[in-house]
Amino acid sequence: MRTKLLLLGVALAAASPAAIAADPASDAQLQALDARIRALEADSQKLREQAAAALAAADAARAELEKMKATLQASQQATTQEAAQQAQATAAVAAVAAPADASAPNPGGANGNAFNPGIAVILNGNYAHHSLNPDNYQRAGFAIVDGGPIPQGLSLGESEISFAANIDDKFYGQLTLSYEDDHGGASTSIEEAYIDTLALPDGLSVRLGRFFSNIGYLNSHHTHTDNFVDRPLPYQAFLAGQYGDDGAQLRWVAPLDVFLEFGGELFRGENFPTAGANRGGVGTHTLFAHAGGDVGDENSWLAGASLLDAKTTQADDGFSGDHKLYIADATWKWAPNGNTKDGGVTLRSEYFLDQRDGTYSAPTGDAIDLASQPALDPLEDPALSQPWVGDRRGVYVEAVYRLNRSWDVGYRFDKLWAANTGPYASDFDPVRNSVELTWRNSEFSFFRLQYSHDDPTRTTTDNALFLQYDVSLGAHGAHKF
Amino acid sequence: MNKYTFALLLLCALVAPRAHALNVFACEPEWGSLLHELAGDAIQVDVGTSALQDVHVIEAKPSLIAKVRRADLIVCTGAELEVGWLPQLIRQSGNSKVASGPGYFLASDQITTLEKPAKLDRSEGDIHPGGNPHFQMDPYRILAIAKALDARLAELDPAKAATYKQRLDDFTARWQTAIKGWEAKAAPLKGRKVVVHHWSWIYLLTWLNMEQIGALEPKPGVPPTSSHLASLVDLTKASNALAILRAAYQDPKPGDWLSERTGVPAVTLPFTVGGDDKSKDLFGLFDSTIDKLLAVQK
């Protein structure tokens, strides 16, 4: 133990002089470091001074530049101020003028598109609630052909797609395909496919192909532009909604202050109210005249008279023989400052006179709802026929009040006068009253609510409620008055 | 002179085309006024619409078909402004002279337009693929259109080309002087902010270095809604707006509503010739527009 302590003491004694001996050396190192730090400080001071000098130089240069700019501007302004302004104005006009090579055909023009046809799609659907089952619907004095009530419940209405464009400098073409849910049987059809001339002189134009006749007012209008969910009774009864066929039309617009057009059409005579393509496939002839104009800034009118003359064989209502349909139409629109989309009233009426001189034999096939056929026992055999000679008439009057760009309300009165003799003889005249309310979100979409009180026969009444949507997408449509 | 010669002369007098002044149909009043500047009584002008009508939604009414039927030239804005009615007028009139070619003049073809949409989607409202069509409020574009229109008149009616040229030079000189006057007068309006009813004023605002900060219509062509108007109250107040601008034909109610809640005046500008008493011609249109803006500038 003692030796161990001794050894420790010797070891300590040996270690401590070494530590003391190191002191002078570290002093020297510290001094060296101190010197280096001072040198670095001096360096950084120098650099700082150099940087400041550089900045000052840059400022000086900038000031010089500003001075030069000012001098330059002054010298520019010194040139004749008038000429400078003139040049500026000319440049401003040139800047907004179309480039010189813009003489290229303008995109758009009378179409939606340069070369592709303008494509427009109409989508349309209904909900209908009838108090009288549409399957049992009969109309006193008239056959139900195609133009019957809208089906009970939810249904797709007339939805269509149309393509239209100028074909070349002389022709315009349009094709409209439509889908219609025809009482359970869906059908896609070529609703219209026609060409119009663009280059005939003196207000003449010719239309060729399949198209809606220009008789009356509503007939040439597509149903999506109507003011009510369904067509008025005279259109349903006499034209199954709308008469279109394969044909040719000639129109002439007079060069007058008032609008005055005359025209005529030749049709194949295959679609209701005609059938059989008589007279060598030119079974239907029409004539029409329309006149219109303004009264002051706020009133516009359009009126017309039309005649459809057809030779028919076994039409869908069983008629064969000579058929004449006369239509008189009148429209009056009033709107504050002529802004018809923002307010005002539209009044419209059409009057129909339907003259038959021929025979009736019961229609075959499913073109006609059997329930709506007259109950005439001796005529159940289609081979037998009876005379059908006589007049029937129809009228509708509608008034639509536009509250603003979004809302309109309307009322329509329709009436048909049955014949007292003939196969559909009736001493009751069908009558209907309808009211509608339309909300438009834009010019491309609307929703419509309609209530109709319909007395189609003496003993039946149909209270119907409709909700309709109707939208158009694609090319911007341009509608007739 | 024997009786045959006389009869022949009489026949010639009857069938020879009578010296007939050019019939021009102008879709909007500003082009009617410009035609008057360029041709005076040398042509017969029919104007289809008035300053109190919304030209986006005119109907193809019979009186307009009759006017287009007699026209040798139609002068319209273009840029799809009249897309809902002009094509009907041309087709229904059966007038091949104005269906295409020299008889069909669109102002939008003569100039560059602003606000051409990058995306064509109707959920963005009633947008025009050809750009904003309300360029009649830029005097420089008016001048560019005047030059092109004058050339068109001379092309269709070469006999009066000298008259048209002389009237264009005269108009150009008066118009450039007027522009200088308007620009000097409107200097205090520079940098001022406005709320607009419809996107009708971009050309005027760009010219006068003013700024549009909002529109009463939530999207172009969509009528103002109360929720959208409410959202404009704070913005209008905060940005020290000069005015709420609308055209003579537009419904004053939405602008008045916002004006009442913000204290920013609603100003009805003529927008086209005939929009107010002072706007009897193009010069009056700009005089009145600038005066009405300066009146609220205090």
Quick overview:
The complex is a heterodimer of chains A (481) and B (298). With 481 residues, chain A is of the alpha+beta class.
Give a written overview of the molecule:
The complex is a heterodimer of chains A (481) and B (298). The termini of chain A are far apart. Chain A has helices at 2-78, 81-96, 233-239, 278-281; strands spanning 118-130, 153-156, 159-166, 171-182, 185-197, 204-212, 244-253, 259-267, 284-295, 299-312, 319-334, 344-360, 386-402, 407-417, 431-442, 445-455, 462-474. With 481 residues, chain A is an alpha+beta fold. Chain A contains four helices and 17 strands. Helices cover 22% and strands 42% of the residues of chain A. Chain B is α/β, with parallel strands linked by helices and 298 residues long. The longest helix of chain B has 25 residues, at 161-185. The model of chain B is unreliable at 12-18 (pLDDT under 50). The chains are: A alpha+beta (481), B alpha/beta (298).
Morphology call of chain B: globular
Largest sheet of chain A: 16 strands, antiparallel, barrel
User: What series of H and E elements makes up the topology of chain B?
Assistant: HEHEHEHEHHEHEHEHEH
Task: Provide the spatial order of strands within the biggest beta sheet of chain B.
Answer: 2-1-3-4
**Greatest contact between two chains:** A-B, 69 and 59 residues
Number of strands of chain A: 17
- List SSEs of chain A in N-to-C order: HHEEEEEEHEEHEEEEEEEEE
User: What is the CATH domain class of chain A?
Assistant: Mainly Beta
Helix and strand content put the structural class of chain B at alpha/beta
> Helicity level of chain B, as a percent range?
40-55%
How much beta of chain B, percentage-wise? 5-15%
CATH level-two architecture of the largest domain in chain B: 3-Layer(aba) Sandwich
Shape of chain A: elongated
Provide the gyration radius of chain A in Å: 44 Å
The amount of helix of chain A comes to 10-25%
Total domains of chain B? 2
CATH class of the largest domain in chain B: Alpha Beta
> Mind telling me the CATH superfamily name of chain A?
Porin
